[in-house]
Amino acid sequence: MLGWVAVVPHPYLGVTDDRGVVRIEGVAAGTHTVETWHEELGRRTEDALVKPGETSRVTLAYPETG
Hints:
Shape: globular
Largest sheet: 2 strands, antiparallel
């Protein structure tokens, strides 16, 4: 058995679904850094601008593995 624990200084985190999508709600307006982590492929980061009353989308892609 294998498990992972993420300790972060905020409540904004999630686990992707079968399509690789996660939705994080209640994020304050402003610019935030989004980080993903994959156990074999490592981390990816991207800045996201969150505007009041709008939905922001961020795409963080990993290379396809075979």
